[in-house]
Amino acid sequence: MQRWQLSRNETALLDHIFWSSGLSRDALSGQASFSKSRTNAAVAGLLAQGVIETTEEQVATGGRRAQTLRLSRRLGVLISIAMGATGVEVGVLAPDLTLLAHHSEPANVRDGPALLLARIRALMKHLLQQCGAKAADVIAIGIGVPGPVDFGLGQLVNAPLMPEWDGYPIREDLKADFSAPVFVDNDVNVMALGELWRLGRSLPNFLVVKVGTGVGCGIVCHGQVYRGANGSAGDVGHICVDPNGPRCHCGNLGCVETMAAGPAMVRAATEAAEAGKSPPLTKALESGKPLRLQDVALASRAGDAAAHAIVQRSGALIGQMLASVVNFYNPSHVFIGGGIQRIGPLFLAAVRQSVYHRSLALSTRHLEIQYTPLGERAGLIGAAALAMQETLRLPG
């Protein structure tokens, strides 16, 4: 973007165009509170510089196709990285967040940053080649990581799941092969950005809760991701739900993460299988492979009572934690994502029951709790949204 010199009006309209995923001139004028003449002048400048382009959308009743505006694909491409505790996904996207190519594979963050980031750089190069793009075409790189992030420095800070990453210069590592700016954030903040982009910023106050290897929460407040004073806002996985519970890897007792996240459910499933309380889980364990969350999901959907109990207990504990957050923050929506989505409606029902039972009536009067509509793509779309959003905020 540094090749273009944009006026304040042009920059303001560019932001609206990105977040709205295609706007007519009239709609853009209304959103920006600009007069039509002011809007048309700024749009003409953006079109002349090749920053935006026109597309033809739906057919208007009795008339011609409506012309909308979007970020120009001539700007280049975005690279998006969604890193989890047990896997990584890399994607190449157009400036309007159309997914052009992607790849996902298992990964272990405990292998350390040097090994995993080298693999990610290799995947980035491969996907760019697949799209017919070069490193010089990359506008920006966004990456979500499973731990607290100092957003200004782009570094993980005291991440319980990945201690070797503490203070590691992720941005500098990725810049070894790319000159584009790199933006690093917590994985759930990135998921929240993905949902915010999907919604066109139409919901100003909502939560995104990820339940996988750990538990985290992305907070959207007044249409912006809220990171807190030091980047640790939303670290709800270490809220205590049982002071007499097991010790968490953070050192405290009874954290919801250690009692209700994916590994806790798998441990409970393994115990039930070994005790002969669940025929389908016992059969899965006898295959010689460790049980996975997917095995619990399959057993639960098949009507297994032990699997049902594990899912309901986990949902109830997550809901217990969320009830306090809902009372405190009063969001309009709670979107739940991560590996837990594979469980299906039973988990969601248990969460809802616990939240509605424990929260104040005023806090839940219009509250909606559902799985993230973006599903497993939330992190990938969100990291690209992070990259584009922060690039548009750069000087020049």
TrEMBL record:
- Lineage, top-rank taxon, reads Bacteria
Which keywords describe this protein according to UniProt?
Answer: Membrane, Transmembrane, Transmembrane helix
Query: Which residue stretches, if any, does this entry annotate as coiled coil?
Result: none
Q: Which InterPro entries match?
A: ATPase_NBD (IPR043129), ROK (IPR000600), ROK_cs (IPR049874), WH-like_DNA-bd_sf (IPR036388)
**Record-linked Pfam families:** ROK (PF00480)
Q: Which Gene3D superfamilies match?
A: 3.30.420.40, Winged helix-like DNA-binding domain superfamily/Winged helix DNA-binding domain
According to the record, the segments passing through the membrane are 75-94
**What is the designated name of this protein?**
ROK family transcriptional regulator
Q: Does the keyword Transmembrane apply?
A: yes
